[in-house]
Amino acid sequence: MPDAPCQGVSGQDVVIVLGPARTPSRPPAREEVMPPKRVTLADVARRAGLSPTAASMILNGRPDSRLSADAHARVHEAATELGYRPNVAARSLRTDKSLTIGFISDVVATTRFASGLIRGALDAAQRAGHVMLVLETGGDPARESEAIGAVLDRQVDGIIFAVMRARELFVPEIPSTTRVVMLNATNKKHPVSVLPDEPAGGASAVRLLAAAGHREGIALIGHNAEAEKGLFRSTTVEQRIAGIRAEMARQGLQFATEESCWDWEPHHGYDVTHALLERRSDIRALLCMNDRLAFGAYQALADHGLTVPKDISVVSFDNDELASYLRPGLTTVGLPHEAMGRASVEILLSPSAPSGSRLIPMPVIERASVRTHPLDHATA
Asked: Between residues 8 and 71, which one has the greater pLDDT?
């Protein structure tokens, strides 16, 4: 059987290289394809009729260039016609900037819900003229060290560490000269972080119920003492519940019950809501700690012959994609992932970013899961 051909691509031509012939023969002559000459700044300047220094000032956006609008137009037109691309390596040597950002995450890149962190960061990096290297570690400390080494070898201008579930994050040793921003995370050695404004978000959820007239029969679904205060404390869970409790006090409200569960998946929401409805008939509103719990709560309410929001209002957090698919649509306080990602890059590239946490507002997404005028059960 003859050897299978191998194919390669050179420029716009496809070169097919066959396997060795069965009988020796002189190989056919092959035309050498020279790589195209790189367009230089001098080429652009020559085409525009200006000096290389003037062309450089225009292409680099120097505000003090004092060159005419016509000169700017000629340079940009010449750069487009010639296909000019700046020599990043040379510019890095001049400016001591690589125009590259390292983005290291646990599972953010492969998690649909948290991928907005990357989208926002990529958008901000592109607008700032930077390239972003995205590395995922799966939370493995060995891979985290490898990732840090990989981005430091490429002389990045800074590193963003991101996690899907907000928490205090351990970070391997990094040179003190490297700028670091924690995204959806905190770290004592690297005090610059970007977090959702959970205290305000928690307060917003309570205000939604209070504004609709709910004064009694409110149940908290997803109380988790470990996540709030214990060994597995989550920075955002602690702040979210603090915001909820502070606003409940301001409104003069109390929870009728707080239903605990270890995790916040739909089956947990179903189980705790089903058990709650089995023992109590005075519940008129559910405040769920995330949308996945609320999804399970919807199913439990339906199994008990109750409808949302006619019988029971539901408010939640995160604005997971499924919140818009539920019927009726789920009113929720969203996580501003894309805005957080953009802020992390802007802070990283800022010449004087202050220490501490930048809190990004959590948007309220009102749908149809809150009854504006709750049923008067005393007269029903």
From this structure: 71
